[in-house]
Design brief:
The protein has about 210 residues and is mainly α. The longest helix is centred in the last third of the chain and has 28 residues. About 20% of the residues are buried.
Length: about 210
């Protein structure tokens, strides 16, 4: 490319970032408006104002685009929340295990009910069931980091003598998150703070009379 004297060369990295951002926005918007099955690479490209070849240069499928766009959306939301809540899903360790887990589950409820997150997260969860590669990526990049936070908090509680020392944290955390995920995915009941608080109380105290 020849440039005129005195004029800087075009910043291709900035142009690429604008295109990438437009593609993220287009993918998320289309999933909300028309649903995941009707969202296509062609539709994303047209909405973003780029050519299909631009998308295929960076991603292999619409699922790949949506997954990356969803991860970026979460990072944006964290930045918008400000420094105090930059990492909204970090489980605090105040010494009160029940209160700490209830707090992070309430934050999860807020996100699950946020229209910006609900449609793409449902689409990715559903696609992961039928597409093994998407399922692995969804688990590794979205679920596993959150799961590890629960594992770390439960291990801290073990060290403090608040839960059984022989407890397997990766099994125990399912008492908190699996019922919530099932209710959200299958629409079997309302997703509320009261519900997640009850999950924590039942998991930590059991069903037997005290």
């Amino acid at each position: 490319m020849v440039t005129q004297p005195g004029k800087p060369a075009p910043d291709t990295s900035r142009r690429s970032e604008r295109s990438r951002r437009a593609i993220y926005d287009a993918a998320l918007a289309l999933v909300v408006e028309v649903g995941y099955p009707r969202t296509t690479i062609e539709g994303i490209a047209a909405r973003a104002g780029v050519g299909k070849q631009t998308i295929y240069r960076w991603w292999g499928s619409k699922a790949d685009v949506l997954l990356e766009a969803f991860l970026d959306l979460g990072e944006q939301a964290a930045r918008e929340a400000g420094p105090a809540e930059h990492e909204p899903y970090v489980i605090p360790d105040t010494g009160d295990l029940a209160a700490d887990v209830k707090a992070v589950l309430r934050a999860t409820v807020d996100q699950l009910k946020d229209p910006r997150f609900e449609a793409p997260s449902r689409a990715l969860a559903a696609e992961g069931v039928v597409n093994e590669q998407v399922g692995r990526e969804f688990t590794a990049r979205l679920l596993e980091p959150s799961i590890q936070l629960y594992v770390d908090r439960l291990r801290s509680a073990q060290r403090a003598g608040q839960v059984r020392a022989d407890l397997d944290p990766r099994i125990a955390l399912e008492f908190f998150i699996s019922p919530l995920a099932q209710r959200w995915l299958q629409y079997t009941g309302p997703i509320t703070y009261e519900y997640t608080d009850a999950l924590v109380d039942y998991a930590l105290h059991g069903l037997a009379p005290r």
